[in-house]
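thread: overnight batch results

M.L. [08:02]
morning all. the overnight job finished for the chain we discussed friday. pasting input first so we're all looking at the same thing
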Amino acid sequence: MNKTNIIEFNSKKVLYIKTSDIPSGVPKAFEKLESHLPTLKGRKFYGAFFYNQGNPEYWACVEIKEGDNLDNPALEIGTLLGGKYASRKLKNWSAEKDIPQKIVGAFEEMLKEFEAERERPEIEFYRSQNELILMLPIK
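M.L. [08:03]
and the structure it wrote out:
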């Protein structure tokens, strides 16, 4: 079992593409997001899952960086809210066969230990092709 840590996440301003087609629409949302960026190098990518009272929504996000076109009509601007999060790492995530199920399973395990605060999203930080950090907002 992976170790769960408690972290303080700082709010991030992001550009995002939203989808309610979860999980099958998530890769397409990231592809669309990436197609609007001049380069992927040095970028910080996030996924954010919002429960929205039974109407779930997923944001494929990139942290805003100086020089980004904030007037691009294809991209929305938002904020991933900071605060206290339970955090768990998934190693070698990009080599996994069923990564959506691994992510869901890790969040379900954390929910057994912690009470989630549903006003903030569950966050995936794609640190590298080898390391995915999952963050559950907690009270």
